[in-house]
Write a structure and sequence with these properties.
Layout lengths: L5 H26 L3 H8 L2 H34 L5 H13 L2 H12 L6 H6 L8 H25 L3 H9 L4 H29 L5 H4 L6 H12 L1 H34 L1
Helix pairs in contact: 2-12, 3-7, 3-9, 3-11, 4-7, 5-7, 7-9, 8-9, 9-12, 11-12
Length: 263
C-alpha cells in the first residue's frame, strides 16, 4: 500500500467537501421518506408509469445519440478541417442553454406547425404531449455527453494502430470496428451512461414540449405543487435509488474493464 504524503492528505480533506456536499442532501432525502411510503408509491401505477416513461425514453435517446454521435466523434477526433471548432461548440451548446429555452426551441420545430413537425404530423408522428417529444428533448440535452466522451476516447488511441491494420489489408470500416471501436468502447459506455442519466433527470424542456405522458421529474414537480414535500419525496427517493443502482453497476463493470486492461 502506497504511503500517503501530506499533499495527498490535504487534498483528501479538501476534496471531502465536494463528496459531503453531494452525499448529505441525498442521504437526508432518503432518510426523510419512510419505507412504507416508498412501498406504497411503488404500487401506484402513476408512479411506475412515469418511471417507465423516463427510463425507456432515456434509453431510446441514448441509443440514437450513440448511433449518430459516435461517427461524429470519430470524425472530430481524426480530422482537422475548417469549422471544426464551430462544430465542437455546437455540440457543447445544449449543456449551457437553459432547458426552458430548449423546450421552446423544440416546440417551435416539432409542433404541428413547426418546420419538422408539420410533415411528420402528416405521417402520424406527433411530438407535443407525446413520447417522441420526450425523446427529442432528452436527446437534445444528453447527446453531447456521448459525442465528447467518444471523441476523447478516439483521441487517446494511437493512429498508428489503425495504419498498421490498414497496411495488413483491413479496410477503413473493418479497422474501425475491430481496432478503434473496441479500444474506445469504455469511453463510449461512460458517455452513454452520462447521456442516459442526464436524460432521466430532464425536466425543464419536458414541461413545455411534452408534459404528458408524465415523466418522473414532471410527476415529482406536480406532486410537490399539489401535496408538498410529503407527496414528492417518496417518488424522488425511488428515482434516486434507481439511478444510483444503475451507476454503481456500470461503475463496477467499467472498473472490471480497467483491471483487465492492466493485466
Amino acid at each position: 500500500m502506497r504511503k500517503l504524503d501530506y499533499t495527498t492528505i490535504f487534498f483528501v480533506i479538501m476534496g471531502s467537501f465536494m463528496v459531503l456536499f453531494i452525499v448529505i442532501p441525498i442521504v437526508n432525502l432518503i432518510a426523510s421518506s419512510n419505507l412504507s411510503s416508498i412501498l406504497t408509491n411503488l404500487q401506484d401505477s402513476e408512479v411506475t408509469n412515469s418511471i417507465f416513461v423516463s427510463v425507456y425514453s432515456a434509453l431510446i435517446a441514448t441509443f440514437i445519440a450513440v448511433i449518430f454521435g459516435v461517427p461524429l466523434a470519430y470524425v472530430l477526433a481524426r480530422n482537422d478541417f475548417t469549422g471544426k471548432g464551430f462544430i465542437e461548440s455546437i455540440i457543447d451548446v445544449p449543456v449551457v442553454i437553459p432547458h426552458t429555452v430548449v423546450g421552446i426551441s423544440l416546440l417551435l420545430v416539432f409542433s404541428s406547425t413547426g418546420i419538422l413537425g408539420t410533415p411528420l404530423n402528416k405521417l402520424g408522428i406527433v411530438f407535443v404531449d407525446a413520447m417522441p417529444g420526450i425523446i427529442v428533448a432528452m436527446l437534445f440535452v444528453g447527446g453531447s455527453f456521448v459525442v465528447n466522451a467518444a471523441r476523447e476516447g478516439f483521441e487517446s488511441i494511437d493512429p498508428r494502430m489503425e495504419k498498421v491494420a490498414r497496411t495488413l489489408g483491413c479496410g477503413s470500416f473493418r479497422t474501425f470496428f475491430t481496432i478503434t471501436l473496441p479500444l474506445g468502447l469504455r469511453n463510449i459506455v461512460v458517455g452513454s451512461l452520462m447521456c442516459w442519466a442526464r436524460a432521466v433527470s430532464e425536466f425543464g424542456s419536458l414541461v413545455i414540449i411534452a408534459y404528458y405522458p408524465m415523466a418522473a421529474p414532471t410527476l415529482i414537480y406536480q406532486r410537490f405543487s399539489d401535496f408538498g414535500l410529503s407527496g414528492a419525496t417518496p417518488v424522488a427517493v425511488i428515482l434516486i435509488l434507481i439511478c444510483l443502482t444503475v451507476f454503481v453497476v456500470m461503475r463496477m463493470i467499467i472498473k472490471g474493464w480497467r483491471t483487465y486492461d492492466k493485466d
